[in-house]
Amino acid sequence: MLGILLQLVVVVLPTVLAILMEIATPEMRQYRHWRKFVMAFGFILSALVLFQILYSNKMARIGRENAIKETSKQVAAETSKEVTKSVANVYARIVSEQQKQIQELQSQIAAQGKKVDVISSSNIVTGKKPVKVEVMNPPSAPEAPASHPLPNLSWTQEPGPKTKDGKAITIVTFRVDDFLPFPAFLV
What we know:
The chain has a two-stranded antiparallel ribbon with strand order 1-2. The longest helix has 83 residues, at 32-114. The relative contact order is 0.05. α1 runs antiparallel to α3 (32-114). By secondary structure, the protein is mostly helical. It has two domains: 2-85, no CATH class; 130-187, no CATH class. It has six helices and two strands; from the N terminus they run αααααββα. Helices cover 66% and strands 7% of the residues.
């Protein structure tokens, strides 16, 4: 509102001064305060023009800053929306692919579980490439007598030399880390 009023005053006042100068009679112009009036009017008009320029510059700067802030907010919101949408699409594809892989693997496991020939031809079952297995017993159970805790029992399984007739031999070695009070097991 102030900007419009200043623009109007700055446009109209020079016209008013020109009209006053034109309608002033020579006697009025000879009046001693006439020059002071014209000079004061000119200074006031110049001051108003300066104020109007400064005010317009200030309002333009505020307008630019507000426009930049508003544009930044809109760009940030739009970018965030697009990034969220893009990331959601990527993760949806990844999850979909993983679900397909899980379903495929489940069907393969179900199919292999039904095939006895796969299990029977396994290297572990046939003994062609035996796997070394070492099993450690867990610490003694609480129900074992306190005076004789159960020792840890472990064993290893390794391939041995073949016999003369070509049969495979597997060597199983048992280890006990303490006294074993069950002689039947030792035999």
